[in-house]
Design brief:
Layout (H helix, E strand, L loop, with lengths): L2 H16 L6 H8 L3 H4 L6 H18 L15 H5 L1 H16 L2 H13 L4 H28 L9 H22 L5 H22 L3
Helix pairs in contact: 1-2, 1-4, 1-7, 6-10, 8-9, 9-10
Length: 208
């Protein structure tokens, strides 16, 4: 691991535990075992480290092969979506599980959740990447199910998307508030509860 990557990981660990504004470049340097001035060979400022963290996270969503599989395409031609929306959700859940089992990604999630009210860049990132884009995805998901007669005609895709997505968000906030380092057993329980909720919601709106 090169020095820049060590700085990245040390900063991310400190940001996710203490908050971005509470961490100094000197603390990051001490954690890496270098002089503060050495950081400037790799990053011009503390904010540039934060931006690099966000770029890494955004690129992960954009380029990860599993997350961008055709299995998750929102189209009436996607047989899995139409024939088994529960399996569609499960496969997506497993893809997200794989992402969160990577320590870096879990720390970034925690950083975002605990800092949204204290840093404008983090707030905007949270709003776009973790609220607007997922809600657009789930709104389209329910719209396709409604248009194809799989869920009841009176369903509101906008409200369903918010209901569908809000429960996992609540569970994540609960985990991040409780743990500095989330145990794998708790993460497994998070996915179990999320899938139970998804199943319950779909059962309640599907055409019998």
């Amino acid at each position: 691991m090169g020095t820049k990557e060590k700085i990245f990981d040390a900063a991310l660990d400190l940001f996710s535990k203490k908050g971005y504004d509470s961490v100094s470049l000197r603390e990051i340097a001490d954690e890496v075992g270098i002089k503060k001035s050495s950081i400037y060979s790799h990053y011009p400022s503390k904010e540039s480290i934060l931006m690099d963290i966000f770029e890494y996270f955004t690129d992960f969503f954009k380029y990860d092969e599993l997350l961008n599989s055709n299995d998750f395409s929102l189209s009436s031609k996607n047989k899995l979506l139409l024939e088994n929306p529960e399996r569609f959700y499960h496969n997506g859940s497993e893809a997200i599980r794989g992402m969160l089992l990577q320590e870096r990604n879990l720390k970034i999630f925690k950083l975002i959740f605990i800092q949204i009210h204290y840093n404008e860049n983090i707030r905007l990132f949270f709003q776009e990447e973790m609220l607007e884009k997922p809600l657009m995805f789930w709104r389209e998901f329910f719209t396709i199910l409604k248009e194809n007669g799989i869920v009841k005609s009176g369903c509101n895709p906008e409200l369903l998307a918010k209901e569908y997505y809000s429960f996992p968000i609540y569970l994540l906030i609960e985990l991040f508030a409780k743990y500095d380092d989330i145990p794998k057993s708790s993460l497994d329980d998070f996915f179990r509860q999320s899938e139970e909720h998804a199943q319950f919601l779909l059962d309640s709106i599907k055409v019998k």
